[in-house]
Amino acid sequence: NIYIDLNSEQKKLYVAQLxxxxxxxxxxxxxxxxxxxxxxxxxxxxxxxxICIDPNVVYDxxxxxxxxxxxxxxxxxxxxxNGHKMLIFSSxxxxxxxxxxxxxxxxxxxxxxxxxxxSKERMNMVEKFNEDETDCFLITLKAGGTGLxxxxxxxxxxxxxxxxxxxxxxxxxxxxxxxxxxxxxVIKLITKGTIEERIIELQEKxxxxxxxxxxxxxxxxxxxxxxxxxxxxxxxxxx
Length: 239
Prior knowledge:
Blueprint: E1 2-4, H1 8-31, H2 38-53, H3 67-81, E2 86-90, H4 93-106, E3 110-113, H5 119-131, E4 136-140, H6 141-144, E5 155-158, H7 165-172, E6 185-191, H8 195-204, H9 218-222, H10 227-233
Parallel strand pairs: 1-6, 2-4, 2-5, 3-4, 5-6
Helix pairs in contact: 1-2
């Protein structure tokens, strides 16, 4: 795991959204209750997760840096120089669209799969990636969790933390298929003192165990969490 400090601009946005989320959570719990307010609570938590990855996903007018995209670019450029091929996963298509733009400016070659790419086209891209010199394969977590054999890669990068670590492991396994001849490195980028660290704490306590969490269904994601757990996710500062 690579832990990264938010820059001042990202931190300011995160803290402002965190305070807003805490107030809105109190309002939802007092008016609708925990169970009825599931969907709204998940939306609030998702927005915090997105700010950690790239504020541009939430704020169209954000022109500042994203510490994760900067760190990703460093890792990718160094890995390319050393002849590595990478799988890069995110839960959010817009995040990968932004990564794609950065890669195009820097001349980094890639394929990309999200939920809109048809099965036949996916298989064609997978075959090409395993044989050619393309540097990276960008994949949304939902689209790339199962069924893809990507032994051409020897590095897996998770740009964001998903609720259920088993889902991340399934994605990582795309590079651990029969025919893989290299050691596979797995990198997770985590922003310090944010909801991402709190999710990892919950994972370690085996709080989030549902097999179905990939769909993003609010009831599935929040069913194993208590109100106390949600408030813990909204704590600020170092673990």
